[in-house]
Design brief:
mainly alpha, 473 residues, single chain, Arc Repressor Mutant, subunit A, 48% helix, Rossmann fold, 3 domains, Glutamyl-tRNA Synthetase, domain 2, binds glutamic acid, 3-stranded antiparallel β-sheet
């Protein structure tokens, strides 16, 4: 049997973290079993579905690398098929027309509530003598009255729901359009879905769907209902907790690999292993490994994973994503190979690509001003002599290399009998504008002789201004 899974989002918003995790689990299971992964867009709610949401979902999936083998299939393209199945159920007496108006149904509910009964459709149109087609009506599925529905949920275990708890579900509205639970059933059936992996907010729909599948003579798929995701405060994850749309994570500077690793651990585990690259996830993923308890979002852990992948993925891969962020921040990089040198240096002190990009700005643009504190502390009048000497030594280097720049710094220290702080820090502020940066000799070697010379000269001018000002006082 070939495993066929699906991700079936309703395009009523962006692809959120919960949806992305469901998609990931379905995708992983299909990839692991060499099965098929179907992408189905459940867009029958025309008022709430938008083109922009469809695009956001497709973009999110593709950014995460969750490729599909079939689809996207749009439910709105399948109305003829849904109507065909509705007709079939009507002809077989497995569905019937129901003529109660909304007002009558409301009345029915009120009376049931007053009697202390559970409000539900009472089935009074189940056995009418005639079913005129030209009177306003909905179509209801004739749910079995007796017995129970059993779900052997792959996450939750055995669940039994008595049919007496379920009423006759509306499968087509008065305007003839099919309803949500019905379209899901027809699609899962037609698409040969073997494993339905979805959020446990759908668990109440499952017995209804199983009954309809049975009535159609369809194979009932296996179900795995995945627990929800909570925010770090234990409440259901929502916008309050920060970014919830997948593309927002891209914008905030996360690598798709980090988010995938983070998502797979949200509700699934393999011993106490935390780091999984995509190949490992595929190899180790199992539905049995999905946790029953809800999992809580933890931004610190995501940041930790992101930094881990910035440091360990091939720099060429990180460079591609970084380049996107540099552009976003208006930083043009002509020679991309430079990024591969800079990434290992800068990722030590950054958790996101966004930080990485902004911290590297001075490697691609002039330093327009010195950080006030750093300048106050390190571009003092006493720093002029060491900086001048170092500038000369650097200028006279024949080969511009990190090693030779390091020797120039050391010689300056020896000749002037000063420590690293008295030359390294002024140089740092001169070159980067800031008081913190990766190793100066490497940065200088990347920047080139001309730029370093220029920046040191600017810093010397700054010091000179400062000296003049202090003399005037
Ligand atoms: N369209 C549903 C949703 O976005 C998912 C339905 C399903 O997976 O069966 O919540």
């Amino acid at each position: 049997m070939t495993v066929i899974t699906r991700f079936a989002p309703s395009p009523t918003g962006y692809l959120h973290v919960g949806g992305a995790r469901t998609a990931l689990f379905s995708w992983l299971y299909a990839r692991k079993t060499q099965g098929e992964f179907v992408l189905r867009i459940e867009d029958t709610d025309r008022e709430r579905s938008t083109e922009a949401s469809v695009q956001a979902i497709l973009d999110g999936m593709s950014w995460l690398g969750l490729d599909h083998d079939r689809g996207p299939i749009y439910q709105t393209d399948r109305f003829d098929r849904y109507n065909e199945v509705i007709q079939q159920l009507l002809e077989e007496g497995k569905a019937y027309r129901c003529y109660h108006s909304q007002a009558e149904l409301d009345d029915m509910r009120e009376q049931q509530k007053a009697r202390g009964d559970k409000p539900r459709y009472d089935g009074s149109c189940r056995n009418l003598a005639e079913y005129p087609e030209d009177q306003p009506h909905v179509i209801r599925f004739r749910n079995p009255i007796e017995g129970s529905v059993y779900i052997d949920d792959l996450v939750r275990g055995q669940i039994e729901i008595s049919n007496s708890e379920l009423d006759d579900l509306i499968i087509a509205r008065t305007d003839g359009t099919p309803t949500y639970n019905f379209t899901v059933v027809v699609d899962d059936w037609d698409m040969g879905i073997t494993h339905v992996i979805r959020g446990d907010d759908h668990i109440n729909n499952t017995p209804k769907q199983i009954n309809i599948l049975r009535a159609l003579g369809a194979e009932v798929p296996k179900y795995a209902h995945v627990p929800m995701i909570l925010g770090d405060d234990g409440k259901r994850l929502s916008k309050r907790h920060g970014a919830v749309g997948v593309m927002q994570y891209r914008d905030d500077g996360y690598l798709p690999q980090a988010l995938l690793n983070y998502l797979v651990r949200l509700g699934w585990s393999h011993g106490d292993q935390e780091i999984f690259n995509v190949d490992e996830m595929i190899e180790l993923f199992s539905l049995e490994g999905i946790n029953r308890a809800p999992s809580a979002f933890n931004t610190e852990k995501l940041n930790w994973l992101n930094q881990h992948y910035m440091k360990t993925l091939p720099t060429s891969e990180v460079a591609q994503h970084l380049d996107w962020h540099l552009k976003e921040q208006g930083i043009e990089v002509s020679d991309k190979s430079v990024l591969e040198v800079l990434i290992p240096l800068f990722s030590e002190r950054c958790e996101t690509l966004k930080q990485l990009a902004s911290q590297m700005r001075y490697m691609f643009e002039d330093v327009s001003e010195f950080n006030a504190n750093a300048a106050k502390k390190h571009l003092k009048v006493s720093a002029a002599a060491p900086l001048k000497l170092l500038k000369e030594k650097m200028q006279s280097l024949n080969e511009w290399s990190a090693e030779n720049i390091e020797s120039a710094i050391e010689q300056t220290m020896t000749e002037l009998e000063i420590g690293m702080g008295k030359i390294g820090m002024p140089l740092r502020v001169a070159i980067t504008g800031a008081g913190q940066s990766p190793a100066m000799n490497i940065l200088c070697s990347v920047l080139g002789k001309g730029i370093c010379n220029q920046r040191i000269e600017l810093a010397l001018e700054f010091i000179e201004q400062r000296r003049l000002q202090s003399e005037q006082r």
